[in-house]
Known about the structure:
Layout: H1 2-13, H2 15-30, E1 32-33, H3 43-49, E2 57-59, H4 68-81, E3 85-90, H5 93-104, E4 110-114, E5 130-134, H6 145-155, E6 159-162, H7 174-182, E7 186-190, H8 195-199, E8 212-216, E9 227-231, H9 233-245, E10 250-252, H10 253-266, H11 269-291, E11 296-297, E12 305-309, H12 316-325, E13 328-329, E14 332-336, E15 343-350, H13 352-356, H14 361-376, H15 381-395, H16 410-413, H17 417-426
Parallel strand pairs: 1-13, 4-5, 4-6, 6-7, 7-8
Antiparallel strand pairs: 2-10, 3-9, 8-9, 11-12, 12-15, 14-15
Helix pairs in contact: 1-2, 3-10, 4-10, 5-9, 6-7, 11-14, 14-15
Amino acid sequence: MVGKRLFNQLQKFDPDLCAVLKFSFDRQISTLSLIPTDNAASPLSQYLKGSAMGNDFIGHNSFEHYSRIENLAIKRACELFKAEHAIVRTGNAVAASRVVLFALAKNGDRILSFNLRKKEHCTGSQMQYDFIKFAVEPNDFKINFDKVRLLAMRHRPVLIIYSPVNYPKNIDYRPLREIADMFDAKLWIDLGQNAGLVAAKKIKSPVPYADVVTFSASDALHGPQSGVILCKKNLAEHLEKTLINTGHVSLKKNVMAALAITFREAACPEYDEYSQQVLENARALEKGLKAAGLETFCSPTENHLVLARLPQDVDGALTASKLEQAGLLVKAEKLMTANDRISYPILRLSSLDPTTRALGEEDMFTVGLTLGEFLKSRQDMQAMKAVSEVIKEMVENLPLFSEEWLPEAEIIREQNSELMMKAMIYGM
């Protein structure tokens, strides 16, 4: 009841802010998101983030002296991903990426990067790097490792980056490790939203092959907004010193606690079941799109991603805007290839958030079919209304975070879905 009283007081004291809060909640509960970075945090993680630990700071001046709670998060991250060392202090994926870039590359160094990933994280930085692209081939949408080897031979990069945020296939990391070793380069794998599937051992882990692995604790892992860096022991001290030199010297304990329980939850049977459902839902979404006559790239999907090809002359940004009005959230992008003159407009779709909200394969097939029919239609008001009706009926009674994914705890399971949803937003 304390949370309810606080909310009522906030409503009286700051009605403008409460209106924003209510709008955010209503938007989340009444729409369905296929955007890969959208996903609800675990209620346990949210509870800890909103706890009294937010009044305490963790200092950090040497990687040899961690606080008890940071040690706990590090230990759990290393056990979950079988990593030699973990850095759990950065606030988001961009901050984590900059720590890695500053630690492993000097100004002007050459970096060989899949789809030029991480170049966007250099914006506004004093450090400038020479990024060289490798990508999928335009004929079969696979990575030609012989061509990657030739690029490395020509440019002699100090760092090779692979990040599959736009790629629904799971690769063998060994060729990249071999190429990196040939030129004494470091190999950095940015997992993006595949981190959860790796944690649940549903797809192959890059940790044994990479010098550094990064990912966000939010989205797939249902945690707080935190960047995580896994690395080999021989790089630990250098990365930790770079961490301190880039200003990551203090953190509130509530965020670290939320992160620690995120890793604990990801090791539970419920998360394993969730991850398996993510894979099955992605396949069902892809099948629905194809049933509507839409082309998908890199089929069949092997992770949470589905790439839907936009029909010719369709404006991706305008289409996404219309779908948002109809209650379906999507992200329009371009699929790059190894040929700079060839790229394809796509919708980059994910099964992560719909799975968190308890949708199954039949639902996801319907979502794919509905989306595909809209993309092939005139995308007029009538078509938008058809999408809206399907989505409204589908999400009407869905929670933001389904109880079935919570770890076994009777005290949690006794709460009904409505109260859980309110608690997530209003702190009741």
